[in-house]
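Translate structure to sequence.
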């Protein structure tokens, strides 16, 4: 009989994610290359041609730099913070788990503002911590009420608080005043501020000055900004003591050499990024306008994605997938009536709208619960 794992692991559910399910497509006889993926919130106009040229020369026969020194130095120059305040990771999900490994203890309470990214809860349970949840209400577009957040922190004195800003899946972006109110009451609480999608927010505020307050870790994703999902690349910003603690539990060579080279090249493509963000904004508005005209309720979003009420998200996703179009079923967020959409190129968005109209015309789009 196989050795049993720790009880936390044996009873733990894994987290469902968006993106292509290759086994599902294989069973349906659909080629992954033929799928238009609106379920992932990455930049559809990246990577830049400059990046592709750079990757041809990556010395893959060598071990990568464990400290990702050049990549962190380029980030330091961009962000205006010392490189000692930065830790690179194989995507922000790895960094979330490193935070849990370094800081969460058995039985610690950790506050999670839901609905949100499911890996926060997974990381808590791996470490034996106990999630305490605050859930936003539909009438508030699933955004948290900060006075309730403050009350929960006072009541539970959690070891940490996870805040996704802007939040996944509803795209709500909290103000600096809201975050500072949470910091003020949680003096002995670690704030993990996940800013994976912050580059796509208009009029965003700078969070890097918060790290001087001590118990703050900012997480950001190169995957979303620069379309590096297949390489996995992200980084954490915090004071040097926190970064050193995370580095102690970080695997050696955690960021491969191609990802490091891709990150360096991408940071030199800021002009390309700004151009693509303007195109994303245009495509998002096109989708929102067209879907509103068809009678689908759209929730306001500050990010590059949005929630749409679809009746049965599972049925909606299945109907579109037969047309080679993938959307994010939000049942795993506790939102079985909603799908999440992220814009792609304008021609692809037009194909999406055409497919919706065709499904409605054929009465093949079941939006009932």
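Result:
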């Amino acid at each position: 009989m196989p050795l049993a794992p720790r009880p936390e692991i044996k009873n733990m559910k894994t987290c469902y994610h968006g993106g292509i399910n290759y086994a599902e497509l294989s069973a349906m006889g659909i080629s992954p290359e033929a799928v238009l993926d609106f379920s992932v919130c990455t930049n559809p106009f990246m990577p830049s041609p400059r990046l592709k040229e750079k990757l041809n020369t990556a010395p893959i026969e060598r071990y990568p730099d464990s400290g990702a020194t050049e990549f962190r130095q380029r980030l330091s120059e961009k962000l205006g913070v010392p490189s000692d305040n930065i830790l690179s990771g194989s995507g922000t999900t790895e960094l979330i788990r490193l935070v849990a490994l370094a800081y969460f203890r058995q039985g610690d309470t950790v506050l999670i503002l839901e609905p949100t990214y499911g890996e926060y809860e997974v990381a808590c349970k791996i470490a034996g911590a106990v999630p305490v949840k605050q859930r936003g209400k539909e009438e508030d577009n699933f955004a948290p009420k900060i006075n309730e957040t403050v009350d929960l922190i006072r009541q539970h004195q959690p070891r940490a608080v996870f805040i996704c800003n802007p939040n996944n899946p509803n795209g709500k972006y909290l103000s600096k005043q809201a975050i500072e109110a949470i910091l003020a009451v949680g003096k002995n609480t670690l704030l993990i501020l996940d800013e994976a999608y912050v580059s796509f927010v208009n009029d965003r505020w700078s969070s890097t000055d918060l790290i001087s307050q001590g118990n703050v870790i900012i997480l950001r994703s190169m995957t979303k900004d620069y379309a590096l999902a297949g390489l996995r690349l992200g980084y954490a910003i915090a004071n040097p003591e926190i970064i050193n603690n995370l580095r102690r539990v970080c695997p050696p060579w955690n960021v491969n050499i191609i990802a490091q080279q891709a990150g360096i090249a991408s940071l030199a493509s800021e002009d390309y990024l700004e151009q693509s963000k303007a195109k994303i904004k245009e495509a998002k508005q096109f989708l929102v306008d067209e879907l509103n005209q068809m009678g689908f309720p759209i929730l306001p979003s500050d990010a590059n994605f949005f929630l749409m009420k679809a009746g049965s998200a599972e049925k909606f996703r299945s109907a579109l997938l037969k047309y080679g179009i993938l959307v994010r079923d939000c049942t795993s967020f506790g939102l079985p009536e909603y799908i999440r959409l992220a814009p792609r190129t304008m021609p692809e968005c037009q194909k999406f709208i055409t497919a919706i109209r065709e499904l409605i015309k054929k009465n093949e789009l079941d939006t009932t619960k």
